[in-house]
Amino acid sequence: MSTAASAKNGTWRNWGGNVAARPAREVTPASVEELAAAVRKAAEDGLTVKAVGTGHSFTSIAATDGVLIRPQLLTGIRNIDRDAMTVTVEAGTPLKRLNVALAREGLSLTNMGDIMEQTVSGATSTGTHGTGRESGSIAAQIRGLELVTADGSVLTCSEKENPEVFAAARIGLGALGIVTAITFAVEPVFLLTAREEPMSFDKVTSAFDELWAENEHFEFYWFPHTGSTTTKRNNRSAGPEKPVPQLQGWFEDEFLSNGVFQVAQWVGRAAPGTIPSIARISSKALSARTYTDIPYKVFTSPRRVRFVEMEYAVPREAVVETLRELKTMVERSGLRVSFPVEVRTAPADDITLSTASGRDSAYIAVHMVKGTPYQAYFTAAERIFTAHEGRPHWGKVHTRDAEYFERVYPRFGEFTALRDRLDPDRRFQNDYLRRVLGA
Question: What is the SS3 assignment for the chain?
Answer without folding.
Answer: CCCCCEEECCEEECCCCCCEECCCEEECCCCHHHHHHHHHHHHHCCCCEEECCCCCCCCCCCCCCCEEECCCCCCCEEEEECCCCEEEEECCCEHHHHHHHHHHCCEECCCCCCCCCCEHHHHHHCCCCCCCCCCCCCHHHEEEEEEECCCCCEEEEECCCCHHHHHHHCCCCCCCCEEEEEEEECEECCEEEEEEEEEEHHHHHHCHHHHHHHCCEEEEEECCCCCEEEEEEEEEECCCCECCCHHHHHHHHHHHHHHHHHHHHHHHHHCHHHHHHHHHHHHHHCCCEEEEECHHHHHCCCCCCCEEEEEEEEEHHHHHHHHHHHHHHHHHHCCCCCCCEEEEEECCECCCCCCCECCCEEEEEEEEECCCCCHHHHHHHHHHHHHCCCEECCCCCCCCCHHHHHHHCCCHHHHHHHHHHHCCCCCCCCHHHHHHHCC
